[in-house]
Amino acid sequence: MTAIRAAIYLRQSLDKDGKELAVSRQRDACRRVARQRKWIVVEEYVDNSLSASKRGVIRPAYERLLTDYRAGRFGAIVVWDLDRLTRQPRQIEDWIEAAEERGLLLTTVNDQADLSTDNGRMFARIKASVARGEVERKSARQIAANNQRAEQGKPHSGRRAFGYSKDGKRIQKHEAAEFRGAVDKLIQGASLRSIVADLRDRGVKTTAGNEWKPTELRRLLVNPRHAGLRVHRGQVVGKGTWKAIIDEDTHRALVAILSDPSRQPKGRPRAYLLSGIARCGACGSSVTSRIYGRIEARGPIYVCETTPHLGRKIEPVDEFVESVMVERLSRPDAASLFAPPDNSGRLAELQAEERTLRAKLDGLAAVFADGDIDAQQLRTGTARLRKRLDGIASELPALVVTPALEPLVTADDVGAVWDGLPVETRRTIINLLADVTVHPPGRGARVFDPLTVEIAWRARR
Asked: Are 207 and 160 in contact (CB under 8 A)?
């Protein structure tokens, strides 16, 4: 008689320390069953720390198990318990069909799910239905718990938020300082890529222990959680019970900055002061900077990106533009001349309306709970209030102006502050304040002529 070839499938849903202790216990018991039945184990399939209840979860070992069974590599499967194999009735039916059509022998350690018998198949179906029902009840309990946590303003569970302790209540001073530093750099005009590069250079990691990426840093910076706001299902639902790392106005400034389409990266970061923001005086196109590798003694120059009719050495042009900026920002009227429009009144008005609307949402929930309104009235009222809240959320960022100028217009020594700014911040300020046009120097010109660089101050609204 030919010995039956068998496979062992092992799985646990969560392995916190990665030691596979549960898998090891399952392995010992399953091998004991195989020996008792005189089956030859040809392969073990292990999915450690993977769920069998979520349809979207891919279990690599389970997929290999299916493929190898269809290829005829084995005719029997041993599992610790049926819910180790699957918690989905649909998949159980597939295995039952395989047992009926091709003679699959599937058994558990306690023999209750032996698909070679009518009772075993019945038990398998009941077991899968019970397991699926428990998954659904667990999901409902989790949703209810999340709703309750949101209503009470408690922190999210799950992965630790950067800047906070595991329970989400205490601020981690070192990470909070890194967060505020990234915020300050972004507000001063730095790019996400440059901030990420700095974090990587200094070995600052995410709470998952990974290196930062621009997309992850962006998600961190726009998260209302760091302004002490509780978010539930993508909506701010009120104040949190934890301390904020930044205030709400700073959070709105971050959202406004990172929502600006002009910040979308196009190619490599600009290395020179006027690249892409100054115009060519010969044709009106924007000026781009290039270094002609074959003329190293000449150094870097600005050239027109469309036609080769402009070639200006970068250093004297930059020095002149920067000296004009510093001189203008050093004048006594700089603070008032370049100050952003006063939106404080409208900002306060919208913030007050936002608080009122959220209170009304809470009131609707209360009267529904008391039975004074029905579910349809609750949905209608909630939709109307949410629509207005969305309108406020879209208007608030426009009232917050990037405060990149603040350290300059309030400084005693503007030149010293300017020299300490990164190139990206200087570029942001120049583009904010003026239109710069670089003209050709003229035939045979040897000395820099300030008149060939035109600076037109922009009107502040």
From this structure: yes
Residue carrying the six token digits 């918690």: 87
**CB 37 within 8 Å of CB 1:** no
The pTM is what?
A: 0.44
Question: How many Cβ atoms from other residues are within 10 Å of residue 190's Cβ?
Answer: 20
Helices 248-259 and 173-187 pack at an angle, to 10 degrees, of: 50
Categorize the per-residue pLDDT at 174 as very low, low, confident or very high, splitting at 50, 70 and 90: very high
- Could you report the per-residue pLDDT of 274-314, keeping only the tens digit for each? 887 888 887 765 565 543 333 436 678 888 777 777 788 88
Query: Of all helices (H) and strands (E), which one includes residue 37?
Result: none
Contacts of 85 (CB under 8 A, 6+ apart): 9, 11, 52, 62, 77, 79, 91, 95, 106
- Which phi and psi angles does 392 have, rounded to 5°? -65, -45
Q: What is the rounded distance in angstroms from the CA atom of residue 393 to the CA atom of residue 389?
A: 6
CB contact at 8 A, 78 and 105: no
As a residue count, the chain comes to 461
In one-letter notation, the amino acid at residue 209 is: G
> Do residues 33 and 107 make contact, with C-beta atoms less than 8 angstroms apart?
yes
Render 372-416 in DSSP notation, one character per residue: SS-HHHHHHHHHHHHHHHHHHHHHGGGG---GGGHHHHT-S-HHH
Which of 200-209, 253-262, 354-363 has the weakest average pLDDT?
Answer: 253-262
Where do we find the tokens 């408690």? Answer: 154
Residues 378-400 have a mean pLDDT of 73
Select from 182, 187, 244 the least CA-distant residue to 214: 182
pLDDT of residue 293: 30
Helix (H) or strand (E) holding 192: helix 192-201
Contact status, residue 66 vs residue 85, Cβ threshold 8 Å: no
Provide the residue type at 49 as one letter.
Answer: S
In angstroms, rounded to a whole number, what is the distance separating the alpha carbons of residues 347 and 249?
Answer: 9
Q: Which two tokens stand for residue 157?
A: 């569970």
Which SS3 state, helix, strand or coil, does residue 29 take?
helix
- pLDDT tens track for 313-361: 888 989 999 999 999 888 877 766 665 566 666 766 776 787 788 777 7
Helix (H, G, I), strand (E, B), or coil: what is residue 44?
strand
